[in-house]
Specification:
This protein is of the alpha/beta class. The chain contains 19 helices and 37 strands. Strand 3, helix 3 and strand 4 form a beta-alpha-beta unit.
């Protein structure tokens, strides 16, 4: 059966999701979740959430899908231990350290691969199936036919997003917020850089193409394609930052769709809570140029009419859909929005009215024009309806009882419900009935008083006898039976088996540090070669999210798990920065998978590197083999979407250089042959002078993107000078007394 997976940022949203028919909930705790600005759950509220959900046969998955630094590993393990102890069903992870801790220590706690891992092909899916994952969340860029092929061939449960906000970048492959705003998306603190307005400039022609929300995607909506989704294991709704009414609205619509009861009117209700206009997404073949809404980045609402007259501060609105007092509307005027709550609504005689579905008047200080469109962003009456749906029981579970009542004996009731059985025995000894023995109808009357529970009385088996059962005894029996069932249901997963494996050390000999380089064209390649660099990444790069693999010779710079699976037995592999490696455990796991050298994340500073190498040494009595990028324009995001195509500049990337500009910051656009693109940081990272202070790293990479041959040679010369005199770039954690570094790398 297809699982409907709903978001919950707090307990109210969780109840709203369960009240409207979800099968599972995903939520985060106060640490290690990719929605750090959501309310989230602490230990007490998480335990409450698990009990509430499990009682109603709803599963709970906790998101721990951030990268984890070495000084956080102990806290991470404690959190997983707690999650396991209270019966959580699964954990959604990005970092290999978290993934492996779960897989190697807990048999019953499922590890789910987050979309942050960037898995979008069969190879990546097979790798994590081999490693012990119980579910893979595929990238939002995968089309439905490929999803089904992967599921069929990999034979592992697959989860996909079907509704809600989209990232313009492949998830886990966006550094824009972290490197430009100091709030890492991989740490759950994304500032929404893609939702900002940018000017797009053709630098080659010195031509501005205007200011647009060029990276702001529409919201995903696949409800019209539900029949094609029913054989996918889990359908995920985005929205842990959303209000309970949003959750109730979206979950209820998709529940109706899966159950085959959705009408056109029901589907249209998805417009009534937050949405940035909708797209069917890459999942169902949306044209790349239609994946974004470049006019505005926030709630769009839906059109309800237009301005038909303006007279001395009174604005007449011709309506196509009803407008109520206290609704929130926006009026689009000269490409700007006027947003207001309708405190007072008038008819043509200036009388107060509570609602209108034809023509109405509002007072407005701002200037508007005839034909300005009017949108409703909040329907107060519909929100009132949704509020009532946020805390109700979606289903009641049948309670079957067998009542044994004999004079001189205690009352015994055997009960079955919701997959559990229990038996109640009273302390009270039943008496003979002098006149009127207790009847079956009287038992039904008392035992059916279950309105404040999830149960409803179904079958009652009772053989009439001469016993008298006091009403208070029946009431006590009912309450205790409910309590016994609740305890049994919530305790089912709280006794979990542990699975512990040994640790085999993996170490590498220390070497004198050297330079590597990544280049984007033949001129840069030749310049690197002339300057004596022997390890150059050019045609031996296997990008993350590339998912088309051909036989290659020699060492490869691999960016994703699919490429790692494809080439690990045929080629020497250097893992790229896009694995988001920030701790010793993740380095170890990549080495164990055959990676010969691990490139550290852009998000590490010198403190992090020292702690990482120190911890690796302590665990393995030797060093890892590490690479670090010390120069170049960092790739801020990698996207399947092309902003140039959106502005009808398709193909012009071959002759022109385009940039995005926001204030003083610029971001070059690099277009690839497959029409994907990378947005670069306009500011160059340059840590060449810091090489001597960065210990434990073997290879220092120079990342060339837009540089000329002369600039490439100049940078390499500077890097060689910095390397001079360094023999072995490592330290012994047991004797090194330099202390911690203070200066950050990024």
């Amino acid at each position: 059966m297809t699982e409907l997976l709903a978001p919950a940022g707090n307990m109210d949203a969780l109840k709203a999701a369960i009240s409207n028919g979800c099968d599972a909930i995903y939520l985060g705790m106060t640490k290690f979740g990719a929605r750090a600005y959501s309310t989230n759950f602490d230990e007490e509220t998480l335990k409450e959430a698990v009990n509430y959900a499990h009682l109603r046969n709803v599963k709970i998955y906790v998101t721990m899908n951030t990268i984890v630094f070495d000084d956080e590993i102990d806290d991470m393990k404690k959190q997983v231990d707690f999650i396991n102890s209270i019966g959580v069903d699964g954990v959604i992870v990005q970092d290999l350290a978290v993934f492996n801790y779960i897989v190697e220590n807990f048999k019953d706690l499922e590890a789910h691969c987050s979309t942050q891992m960037g898995i979008d092909d069969l190879q990546g899916t097979l790798l994590f199936k081999e490693l012990g994952a119980k579910r893979v969340v595929l990238s939002r860029e995968v089309d439905i036919q490929t999803v089904k092929q992967i599921r069929k061939q990999a034979q592992i449960p697959i989860e996909i997003f079907v509704h809600g906000a989209l990232c313009v970048s492949y998830s886990g492959n966006c550094l824009m917020s972290g490197l430009t705003g100091n709030r890492s998306g991989n740490r759950g603190r994304c500032i929404g850089s893609c939702r900002k307005e940018y000017e797009i400039i053709n630098v080659s022609q010195n031509q501005s193409l205007g200011n647009h929300y060029i990276l702001s995607t529409k919201d995903l909506n696949t409800i019209d394609y539900i029949d094609q989704l029913k054989d996918i294991d889990s359908l995920k709704i985005e929205g842990r930052m959303k209000e309970p009414e949003y959750v109730a609205n979206v979950v209820s619509r998709y529940r109706m769709a899966l159950d085959g009861t959705l009408s056109k009117e029901d589907a249209d209700k998805l417009n009534c809570t937050f949405q940035r206009t909708f797209t069917k997404g890459y999942l169902f073949g949306e044209d790349k140029k239609n994946i974004t809404n470049i006019d505005r980045p926030n709630h769009h609402g839906y059109e309800i009419g237009y301005v038909s007259n303006v007279n001395k501060g009174m604005v007449q609105i011709k309506l196509s859909k009803p407008l109520n007092q206290n609704d929130t509307i926006r009026i689009r005027h000269n490409n700007e929005d006027i947003v207001l709550t309708v405190a007072r609504l008038y008819d043509q005689n200036k009388n107060y009215i509570s609602s209108s579905d034809d023509t109405c008047f509002i007072q407005l200080k701002e200037k508007v024009s005839l034909q300005d469109k009017v949108y409703k962003t909040k329907d107060i009456r519909y929100y009132d309806e949704l509020s009532k749906l946020c805390d109700k029981e979606y289903r009641k579970y049948d309670l079957d009882i067998q009542v044994l009542a004999y004079p001189g004996c205690p009352l015994i009731i055997n009960a079955q419900s919701n997959g559990c059985t229990c038996s109640y025995e009273s302390d009270f000894i039943l008496d003979y009935a002098l006149n009127n023995p207790t009847t079956k109808e009287q038992i039904i009357k008392q035992m059916s008083r279950l309105n404040d529970t999830i149960y409803q009385l179904h079958n009652v088996e009772f053989e009439q006898c001469d016993a008298f059962i006091p009403v208070k005894v029946l009431n006590q029996a009912r309450r205790e039976i409910v309590s016994l069932f609740n305890q049994e249901k919530t305790n089912q997963k709280q006794h979990r088996l542990l699975n512990s494996n040994g640790h085999k050390s993996i170490t590498f000999p220390t070497k004198r540090p050297y330079l590597t380089a990544s280049v984007t064209n033949k001129e840069q390649y030749q310049a690197c070669k002339e300057m004596g660099i022997t390890e150059i990444y050019f045609d031996n790069i296997v990008r993350r999210n590339q998912n088309h693999y051909e036989p290659k010779e020699g060492p490869l710079l691999v960016g994703g798990y699919g490429g790692l699976y494809e080439y690990r037995h045929t080629n020497p592999i250097i893992s790229d920065y896009s694995f988001n490696v920030v701790n010793a455990d993740a380095i170890y796991q990549l080495h164990a998978l055959g990676v010969q050298r691990v490139t550290l994340s852009y998000e590490m500073n010198r403190n992090h590197i020292e702690e990482c190498v120190n911890r690796y040494y302590q665990q393995n009595n030797g060093y890892p083999c590490l690479e670090m990028i010390i120069y170049g324009r960092a790739p801020l995001l990698f996207t399947k979407y092309c902003p140039l195509k959106k502005l009808n500049q398709c193909g012009k990337c071959k002759e022109n250089q385009f940039i995005l500009k926001n204030g003083l910051d610029t971001f070059p656009i690099v277009s690839h042959e497959d029409c994907t693109c990378t947005i670069l940081n306009g500011k160059e990272l340059n840590l060449i002078d810091e090489i001597k202070d960065i210990k434990g790293v073997e290879a220092f990479r120079l990342n060339f993107t837009l540089e000329s041959s002369e600039e490439v040679k100049s940078v390499i010369k500077q890097a060689y000078e910095s390397l001079n005199g360094i023999e072995i770039n490592s330290f012994n954690p047991q004797t090194d007394t330099r202390g911690h570094f203070n200066k950050e790398i990024v």
